[in-house]
Structure formats: structure tokens, C-alpha cells
Specification:
The structure is a homotetramer of 259-residue chains. With 259 residues, chain A is of the alpha+beta class. Chain A has two domains: 120 residues, Alpha-Beta Plaits; 124 residues, Alpha-Beta Plaits. Chain A has eight helices and eleven strands. In chain A, the strands form two sheets. The first copy, chain A, has a six-stranded mixed beta sheet with strand order 7-8-6-9-10-11. In chain A, strands 2-3-1-4-5 form a five-stranded mixed beta sheet. Chain A starts with a strand and ends with a strand. Chains A and D meet through helix 2 and helix 3 of A and helix 2 and helix 3 of D. Chains A, B, C, D: Belongs to the archaeal-type GTP cyclohydrolase family. Chains A, B, C, D: Keywords: GTP-binding, Hydrolase, Nucleotide-binding. Chains A, B, C, D: It catalyses: GTP + 3 H2O = 2-amino-5-formylamino-6-(5-phospho-D-ribosylamino)pyrimidin-4(3H)-one + 2 phosphate + 2 H(+). Chains A, B, C, D: Catalyzes the formation of 2-amino-5-formylamino-6-ribofuranosylamino-4(3H)-pyrimidinone ribonucleotide monophosphate and inorganic phosphate from GTP. Also has an independent pyrophosphate phosphohydrolase activity.
Chain lengths: 259, 259, 259, 259
């Protein structure tokens, strides 16, 4: 059964900083944000986790395998190298949405995101007894995205299609299952999911097709941490490509169930 | 009158590269993408342009002020420092959507985004006679986003709200005006727009409020290039904050018209 | 007793790459090199190690605490994000120079640094039984460098003074003790040393003063890995500043011996 | 005749910052320094300049082609993205050492490098009438460095050889000609030189060979800015490789004089 550990990474008092003493150059802000995310992705990724840029000033990471010392180190190292600091809230639950709820509450309880005195909060307790199927990752992509969109439409209209698919999927998985979906570039969406059956994924894909006409497929994997689960998911997605299937479930032991 | 120069930055044959010889670590891909975008933001931003990450494998930049030599340098420098190369398509038109259509066609005409032999294409012709109102930038944010969302909801549910607002706005501006909207983090959306009146912006904001219940305000600026226009837009947005208005039009000469 | 684990990080076939098909832009090479080093510093540093840029195409890291899987991950992640790959040779010995000798031999035995077919070699065996004083770090700086040099001389002449001090120290510690000294910026030199007495450090400082007239002080620390040893060394160096002493030995247990 | 424009880039009050409130993690400092240098190399390099890391807290750049607005932009953008700020001093003279003297004096006159109140100084006046031979770049490397050192000695002993060569060359060119030499990685040294004859370069190479036994060759180029001069130098160095010569003078017009 899944036991997802999520960390909310929140830049402290970022909004006010971006306009103090007057609005800063937008491209410097974009650079700062994307490099901070890149560093987070490296830090978390090299410990088996996954990080998502979400809104950039608030980022979400799957941190199964990272303990409190790892979080402290991330916080210290970020503060040493950036003009901003970060607060970290950790939450754990079989259901990803509940885990993030807890992670968020830890920071909200310590003060507002725009409270100038609330800096470098660290709240929450990591998983203490890890098991081999704590994390479930579903890796979606859009069928024939290059042929149907990238090589046919102007880039913004391609992007609108992908965005509509993402918006429909993110709502559906959140509301129906408590799964959290993140756009990761190209035509790829990665979701952190609770235990779900093949039929559940099929229903999600059908929902997106019916509501916005975007045609998805998905590979799913489980593991002790996000990287292991995600790699199983990527391999399962390759199986979809080879077999023309819409859903492939890999898993901790590598067994594959398809539809 | 606006005369927008847009550049489509497309990573050559990226999809296949990410799974060759087998799927690469997702966090390395995320790092590569976000750092490539950061470098693009610095390069374009230091020449007065704006860059948006869009889908990361396809990025869109407002490049008024950058000539062909600048584009060649960007292409050469990227190829020297990354394991991937980029193709660049330039398009110019008073209407941003049409400009991007042209930029995209230049690359599509040279081959597929996943054609292994199509590398480092450079197509299109930059603006030859710049004027002081070539670029119009509209900078939107969400009213009271921190109080209503960030400090109240879990981060994913906050993100869903912002995303719904973005999805509604991006479609509306694209379909009604040919404006291109990009989420830039936090609760901020930056749109590259054609000439639009205060009433047009008001209608866009009303549309988003009515369809998804997200409450926006916007500052608009014009200039010879994106940075000048964007800075005027940021200052106009500060005016919205101070005056409680929903739309403020700055402009090249700094005059402000509000509603 | 020290038991230093050193890793030689060598960019594969780098020289030929920099001039193929013709010489690449020097500032792109400088950027590539310094960012690769920065990533190495983050990777190694977050695991308790120290990395030094040395010649950039060959870098030296103190990697006590990093196992073979860590090295494989570094190698894979670098290859995923850079246009070049790295080979890694690990060596262990109480004497740092001998450890590096072994680390180097592992790579040399696998082929030339400019052999196009020799890529991503991983050789050597990490420490298997760590102890609390495996690593000794000596952190030197120049007395009154800002007052005597930076605020008085032109920057190059300041730099020459620092360089002369560094060149004298690096040779002395290498020849007399097998210690390896690295310039780390400003007026700072960090040496990886074997067990040495206060008198040995005093003699090194005297040698530098006598031969090139540069006046050093040093804090020394020991620990299970470089970061712990280096932090003890930094604190010992602060003691030198407060007490006006030339040598302060901190140590694993924090006891301080001064002269 | 050369007319070198040099900029001293000095991190404001850096030393005290690195130990406030207590010593910061060394690898974070190394990362910060090398990334700041990488950004400087990109900024300056994309405008035709060259940047050298020198001591990292003080960096030297050849900035012919960059005006005051470029310098202001560099300063603003750095301050927006780093936890430190930089002061910039510009100096111009036919002789590089004199140019740097002036660049340095501008900052020294504004206060100490460790004066907490002296931030973001910008001093000096860029070249107003550029000509095609304002910058002279000499690119040295070590003959057979891979065969004689990298593939034979342990990495530190290779490095000692290169360092000795560098230390001898830097002093000689500084004292005899006012040329400024910078180690740029591998076995490469780049010098910013005044007008010098082939015999002068030959004498420098002979001096290094006689004093420390390191065998150099050099390609020299001139241009309106450092990149053009440096590329001519790199091509001239390739000529040395092909012809077995020790000195090759390329030049603005591409004519080559060899010895």
C-alpha cells in the first residue's frame, strides 16, 4: 500500500521580494526560479525523489527516502547560494492529497507565506518504516503528440491542447482519487497516485478524451521511492508504445499488467 | 501599432533522446530543461526580450531587438554547452498568434521536430524597422492569492485554482484577440498582446471570473521590446494594487489609463 | 590515523572535443567547466565531501563517505546533462598523494585521457571501514590580505602574491608530507593532509614566508569526512583570527592545540 | 595599437559574508563562486569579451565592446539572482597592467573591498573610439601535456607542472611587458597582451622552459574585442600544432607570421 511522503518547498516571502524596492527584471526572476527548481530536482533526484516546479514559488517534491537531516541540508545549502530562503513542510499519508494537506498545514500553522518574519520553517515527520511500494508514479503522455500537434499547429495551439489535457487530468485524479498530477514538459504528465487499479487509470484516460479530446496513455510503477517507481513507470510506458496499449502497470517486482 | 517578433526555440529530436538508449533519469531531464530555459531567459532578457518555458522542449520568446546574429550566437552557445541542440524559427506580425504561426511554419517546413537529421535550423527574418510600441505586454495576477489560496488550501488545490484561471485566460485571449498568455510562476500570467483597449482587458477578466471564479487584475505596457513593455506593465500592475483597480494601461510614454 | 579517499574526475577526451570541428568559443568552455565543477561540488559536498577544480578537465575530490553507487550516479547524471562524460578513479591511502596516485593509475590503466574509446571508466574501491579521523583538512589564508593586497595593489599584482604563496605551499606540502593543496578563491588554500603535528604546519608557514614573503595562518581539523574536518578547520582558523596565532589544531573531538 | 579595456569585478564584502553568522559550507561557497563566474563568462562572452576567474572574489574581464549600460545591467542582474552584489571598475590603456591599475583604483578609491557600506560601485569610462586591433590575446598551451603529464603522473603532480609553468609565465609577462596571464583549465593559459613581437613571445617561452622546464607554445591574435582576438589566437595555436612551431601570430586580417 502506498505511503507517500511529500514536501512542500515554499520560498519565504517571495512575492514582496520580487517588487522590492521596485519590480525586478522579469527574466532575472524566471532565471532564479528555474535554477532553484533545477537545484531542487538535483538534490531530491539524487536521493531517489522527484520534484515538480508547480508554481515555482511553491514546489512539491516526493521525498520518500529523505530524512530530516536531508531537509535541513537542502534548506541550509539553498540559503547559502540564493538571495531567498525556503521553508519546508513534510506530510505523509497513503493518499497523496492528504499528505500534501499535512505538509501545507505545517507551514500555514507557522505563519503566512508572505510573513516577513517566518523564515526557514521545517515542519513534519518523514516516513519511519519504509516499504517497497510506498510510492506509486503514473507517467502519462499524449498519443502522437508530435505528429498531431507539434508538426501541425503553431506552438501555442499545440500547447493549448496539452494544457487542456493536463487541466482535465489534474482535476479528475485530484477529485476522484487524491492523486496529484504535474506537467513535466513536452507532452508528459507525471502523477503521484494512491493505489489504483488498471480500470481506474482507464477511466481517467477516457474522461480526458471525452471532455477535451486529448488522447493519453499511461505507464504506472511502484517502488520504495519516486525514482524507482518512476523508472518502472517509464518502462511500462515504453511497453504501451510497443504494444499500442493505453495502460501498463509495471510494479516493484517488475510484473506488468496491461489493458 | 504592435509588431511582435516571436522566436520558437525547439530542442532538436528531444523526445527520442530522452529514452535513448533507455529512459533517462527524470530529475536529470527536469534539470536540463529548466537550466536551458534559464540560460535562454538570461540571453534574451539581457537583450530586452522575454522568454517563456511553455513546454520546455518548445519555448517561446519575444525577441524584438534581437537580430539574426543574436539568434546564431544563441544557437552556437547552446550547442557548445548542452547535450542537445536547438532550432530557431522567427516570425513577425502585429498579431502575436500570427507571428508564432510564421515562426512555427519555418521549422515545420524544414522537417519534423523528431527528425534526427534536422538540426540547428534557423528560419525567419527579424523586424527591420523597430518602433516604440512594437511590443505590448499584459501582466496579470490573481487578487489576494496568498490570503485566499496559499495560506488556506493545500498547495495542489491552490495550484488548481491558478491553473483554471490560466487555462481560461489563455484560451480566451488566443481565440478573441490572438494574444498569447504564459504562466510565469506564483499567481502571475504574462500575455503578449496585440493592440487592445481597456474594455477588452476588462472583458477578459470578466470572462475568467465568470467561467472559473478566479479574480484577476492586469497592468499593461508597451515598448520597443518586451522588457520595456513588461516593466511598464509591472508598474501599471502596482497601480492596480494601490488604487484597487482591475485594469491599468501604462504605455511607452508612461501615461496611465485605468478602469 | 588518516585514511583519505580521493576521486580523480577526468572529462573524457576533452581536449580534442574543444577544437572539434573547430575551436569552440572560449567563454562557452569556461562556462561548461565551471558549471560542471559547481555540480560536482554540490553532489560531493552534500555527501560530506570536498571537490577542487584543479585543472577543470581533471578535478580532485575528497570522497570519504561516498560509495560506488554514489560514483555511478554522479557519472550517469553528468552524462545526462552535459555534452561530455567523465571517468572516475578512486584511491585510498593514509597519505593523500599516494591515494591520488592510485586513483590516477586506475584511469591511466584504462587508456589515455585523450583516447576517444575510453569513456565513463569507474575504477578503484572506496573505504570499507570508516573511522572518525579518516580525513584531515588544513584551511590556510593570508594574513591581512585585504589590507595589504586587495585594497593596495592592482588586482593582478594581488593575485600574483597569492599565487606565489600558493605555489610555494603546494610544492612544500606535496614534497615534505604528501599533502595536496588547492587554491579555493580569495586568499584561501585548502589542503588535504596526512597526520601532521603543529610544528609541521609551522614549518610550512615559515617556508612560505621565507621563500616568497607571503604570510599565512592555518586552522586544521579532522573528521570522518571532508566537510566535518573542513568545518573544524574553519572554526580553528577563526580561533587564529581571534588569538593572533598562526596554527590552530581543532580536531574530531573539538579539542584545540595552538601555537 | 592595443587599447585594452579591463573590468575588475569585485564581490562586495565577500570575506566577512562567508563567515557570518558562522563559517558557511565550503562547497556552497565553491558553487556560488563558480556559478557567478559562469554567468559572468556568458554575459561578457556573448558581447565579445573574455572573463577570467582569477581569485573568484575578484575577477578580471576584457570588456572592449561593453559600454556603461552593459555594466549596469550586469550589476543589476547579478544582484537580482545572488545573495551577494558586485562592484565594477573599468580601466582603459594600451598596456593591460596599466588598464587594470586604473580599474582597480576606481574601486579602491570608493572604499575597502570589505567595507560593508560600499556596494555596487561602478567606476571608470569605457573605450569611446574602438578600432580593429584594440585587443591582443595570446593563447598558450603546454606541448604534449597529455602524453608527458596527464597519462604519466598522478593528477596533482601534473597540476604542479602546469602551475609552475603558469607561475613563471604570469610573472614574466607582467614584469617585462605588462601582459596579464590567466590559467583557463587543462594546460591552457590565456594572456591579454600589449603589442609584442614574435621575438618577445619566443623569449617568454624560453624563460619558462629555462626556469621551470615547462615547454609552451603560443598562438596570438588581435581584434576589436577579446573574442575575435582569441579566436584568431586559437587558430594560430592550431597552426603551431600542425607546423610544430612555437609561436604563431595570426591577427586582425588573418595574416600569420611564425617562428
Amino acid at each position: 500500500m502506498t505511503n507517500t511522503q511529500l514536501t512542500l518547498v515554499q520560498i519565504d516571502n517571495y512575492g514582496p521580494w520580487t517588487v522590492t524596492p521596485e519590480p525586478r527584471r522579469e527574466m532575472d526572476l524566471q532565471t532564479l526560479q528555474s535554477r532553484l527548481f533545477a537545484d531542487l530536482a538535483q538534490f531530491v533526484g539524487h536521493r531517489g525523489g522527484y520534484a515538480f516546479f508547480t508554481r515555482f514559488d511553491n514546489m512539491v517534491a516526493v521525498t520518500n527516502g529523505l530524512d530530516l537531516d536531508d531537509h535541513r541540508l537542502l534548506q541550509e545549502s539553498t540559503g547559502n547560494r540564493y538571495p531567498v530562503t525556503v521553508s519546508l513542510g513534510i506530510g505523509v499519508d497513503p493518499n497523496p492529497a492528504v499528505a500534501l494537506e499535512r505538509a501545507t498545514e505545517g507551514l500555514q500553522g507557522a505563519g503566512s507565506a508572505q510573513d516577513g518574519d517566518r523564515r526557514e520553517v521545517l515542519s513534519g515527520t518523514p516516513v519511519t518504516e519504509p516499504s517497497g511500494d510506498d510510492v506509486s508514479i503514473a507517467h502519462f503522455d499524449v498519443n502522437d503528440a508530435t505528429e498531431k500537434y507539434t508538426d501541425q499547429l503553431n506552438e501555442f495551439d499545440s500547447f493549448i491542447q496539452i494544457e487542456q489535457g493536463y487541466a482535465a487530468l489534474m482535476r479528475y485524479l485530484r477529485e476522484e482519487h487524491g492523486g496529484l498530477s504535474f506537467f513535466v514538459g513536452g507532452d508528459n504528465i507525471i502523477a503521484v497516485t494512491p493505489d489504483m487499479a488498471v480500470a481506474d487509470y482507464r477511466a481517467a484516460i477516457d474522461h480526458v478524451e471525452e471532455t477535451v479530446g486529448v488522447d493519453l496513455k499511461v505507464g504506472v510503477g511502484q517502488g520504495e521511492h519516486a525514482h524507482a517507481a518512476g523508472m518502472a513507470a517509464k518502462h511500462a510506458l515504453e511497453e504501451c508504445r510497443h504494444h499500442g496499449t493505453a495502460v501498463e502497470l509495471g510494479g516493484a517486482a517488475g510484473e506488468v499488467e496491461s489493458e
